[in-house]
Structures are given as C-alpha cells and as structure tokens.
Amino acid sequence: MTAHRQLHLAVAFPGSGPAGVGPAGWAGAHPGSRLAFASFERLAHTAERGLFDFLLLDEEPPLPEHRGRLHELDPVGGPEPVAVLNALAEVTTGLGLAATVDAAVGEPYDLARRLATLDHLSAGRAGWRVADPADARPGADFRAADHLDPYGRAAELVSVARRLWGARSPGGAARPFAHRGRYFDIEGEFGLPRSPQGQPVVIQAGESERARELAAASADVLLVRHAPLETARSRHADVGRRLAAHGRTPGELKVMPQITVVLGDTAAEAQERAAGIRRQRITPQYALYALERIWGTDLSGYDPDGPFPDTAPSPGPPDPPEAGGSPSRDDRRLALAARWRTLAREKGLSVRETVIEASGRQSFVGTPDTVAADLHRYADEGAADGFVLLPQLPADGPEEFVDRVVPLLQERGAFRTAYRGGTLRSHLGLPQPAQDR
Question: Where is the composition biased (Pro residues) (predicted)?
Fold first, then answer.
C-alpha cells in the first residue's frame, strides 16, 4: 500500500485573513453574531470534531481605511482574540487555538505572558499568528520612526518572545533575562513556567521575500495565499531552501495555503453556488472600496453598477522594488488596474461585476470527491503541508467540509483519524523547541 503524506487542516473564524468574509461579507449581519461566545464555540466544536489542527482568530481593524478616509461597509467588529481563546480552552480538549497579535505594536513581555497564559490554560495548544509586517495597519499613534523597518521589529519581537518562553529551566527555576536590541531593552524574570509544548507555536503569514525569510528563520507555520499547483510547488521548494540556510529541516516549518472551498453534488451545482457566494460577498459599497485601493483616488461618486472608470490610476508614493528584483507594490497595483480595465472592456462589465469577476474566485470548487482529490494532490506533490479554510459568509462554517470531505481524505490515508498527543506541536508534527530538547 502506498504511503501518502498527511495533510494538516485548520480553520479561521469568518472574517479572518485576506480571503475571509471581510467587511463585505458581514454587511447586514446581526452585531451579536460576531461577539456572542456561542458563535466561536460552535465553530471550535465543529473543527475539533473534524480533527483540525487549530482554529485561528484574527485581529482586525473595526473599519477599513484608505488614504485617511473610513469606508462604511457595515462591519460589526470583533472581540480581542486571545481573550476568546482563553474561554475556548475550557470547552475544547484537542483543538489548537491560535490568535493574531500584531507585531507592529506589541511589547515582548506583555505579548509573551498573554500567549503563555493561553498555552497553560489549554494544556499546550496555543499558537501566535504574526501578520506579514508589510500588511500591518497600526494606528496613527504607532506610526513612529522606529517602525520604518517593520520586518526588523517583528523579527526581534519573535526572537525576544521565544527567549522569554524559554527563560526557565526544565525544572521550573527562573533564569535572569536581559535583552538589549534596536527595538527592545528589557531585563528581569519571566513569571510563568514552560507549558506542556515548551512554547506556543509561531505562525508567520506573508508572501514577500522578507516574510518568507522571517518564517524560515523563526516560524513553525507559514500561511500563504492559494496558488496553482506548479506555483505552489515552486514556493514550497523555495521555503525549504531558506530553511537550510538557517540550519533547519523542512519538517520544522509547515507551509499552509489559506483557501476557500465550495461544494456541490455536481460540478455545475458547485459552480452555481460559488457564483452566488461571490455576489453576496462583493456588495456595491465593497466594490467601490476595492476599486479605490487599486485606483488610489476617491471614487465615492461612482455608481458601482455603472461603467468602469476611464481615468488613469493615481501613482502612489515612492516605493522601491523589493529584494530579489520583485516589482514594487505600486507597480503591482498599476498592473492590476490595467488587467481590471481590460477585463471590464472586453466583457462589458460594471464596476461591481468587474470586482466580482476579478477578485472573488474561490480556491476549490467541485464535488466532495474532486475537492478531496485536489487537496490530496497538493500534499502528495509537495505543494503544501496543509490548508487553512476561510469561510466566506457569516453563517458559513466548516460543517459541510467536515461531514463530506474529511471522511474522503481519511479514506485516502491523507488525514488523521484521531488526535495523537494533546499539544498543537504534536498535531503539526513539530519538534520541541531547542531549549526543551
């Protein structure tokens, strides 16, 4: 019998991540649905029933902003993720619990203490998602000169947090701690002993050169966008090469694309459902917001159901190319604007129809059999170590995936049939932190 690579699966609370529900999908939702503990508990219990590795709760700004103007997209806000996960630790037994905590504004001791507390309350199931510093949106009070190198700050913050988590002997005795760096200057003793998994799992998100390098140096999981099989395989190999440069092996970093899934009894039904979800998610208000972020100018006077603008995009501020010869962010934005304009012209689409057509595509659409086969192929061909499901609507969740796709993955030998070990590190097959070996 052929041995297959085992997939890792996780789920984000609706709204988390770049392809999640977002402000558009939550338009019109009852405010309590995203604040009520029952919403989180139901999702956690479903994910645990499906033997998922972890649940991810994101930290999101309450209102989307572009060039200093807030966009009213009927967002309902969300609670602080670590506080919610502390409560979920009491009603779950196996599911990993991960939260986004912004490295652009956090302080090492406070952050390390909050996450270590969650790790203890959950008996070793905590994870910390470090957002891609290039995408961080700290408030104006934090836009200071020492944040001009967000990757440098994030790298130092992760390093200091790891050292704090390891600042006690295996027997529990406190060790004096001191750090003098560019961004942080602290000393003292860390007040908590080590957790059953040694320290929380560090989850890095991002696609850029520096995000991949930061993950290769210090992360346990790398979250990336979904990509075609060949592109994903090349990316996975690139991350593996970076690990070797830091004295690490490929098994020490799991690469997990963030995906959306739409199922149907037939391929046609799945495609019809997918189209309906795209129209629900891309509201008229959100279509204008998305276009403004590409066009770089105020388009509030445009009719979202009217013709695509014939004006040229506004150039952004100077933005030098990234390391490795990658085009600058402004160059990518202008190229995207050209593609959207061509798409609108060729198909005669309105503003909203263009945004739906260009940016609303789901990752995997099909019957449970075809989706299970596609996910399995990504793992078997070295394109991904697992996936993070991003529900697209407030009422959407992983129930259908758990009931219809997980059993097929288990039949293929591509997914666990029971949790082995009680910590998030054991779920992910990660080694113990170096200081605990």
Answer: 306-321
Q: Using CA atoms, how far apart are residues 258 and 19, in angstroms rounded to an integer?
A: 8
Lookup: tokens for 123: 């008996």
Pairwise CA distance, residues 257 & 197, whole Å: 24
Q: ∠ at Cα 122 (119, 125), nearest 5°? A: 65
How many CB atoms neighbour CB 368 within 10 A? 21
In 3D space, the residue among 114, 148, 145 whose CA is nearest the CA of residue 133 turns out to be: 148
* Cα pseudo-dihedral 318, 319, 323, 325, rounded to 10: -80
Question: Which residue positions form the known binding site?
Answer: 100, 147, 151, 208
Q: How long is the chain? A: 437
**How confident is the model over 164-180, as pLDDT tens digits?**
998 876 666 777 889 99
Residue carrying the six token digits 């690139």 = 238
Q: Which residues contact 342 (CB under 8 A, 6 or more apart)?
A: none
Element (H, E) at 345: helix 329-347
Same domain, 256 and 372: yes
Give the domain CATH number at 55.
3.20.20.30
Q: What digits encode the pLDDT tens for the residues 295-342?
A: 888 887 889 999 988 776 766 544 444 444 455 667 778 888 889 999
Residue 271 within a domain: no
Amino acid at 420: R
The total number of structural domains in the chain stands at: 2
Q: Which helix (H) or strand (E) holds 180?
A: strand 177-180
Q: Which of 312, 335, 359 is the last residue of a domain?
A: 359
CB 218, CB 103: distance < 8 Å = no
Q: Which residues are annotated as a binding site for FMN?
A: 100, 147, 151, 208
pTM: 0.86
CB 298 within 8 A of CB 279: no
Regarding whether 379 and 338 lie in a shared domain, the answer is no
State the helix-helix crossing angle for 284-295 and 329-347, rounded to 10 degrees.
Answer: 130
Which residue segment(s) compose the domain that 331 sits in? 283-359
pLDDT in tens, 232-283: 999 999 999 999 999 999 889 999 999 999 999 999 999 999 999 988 888 8
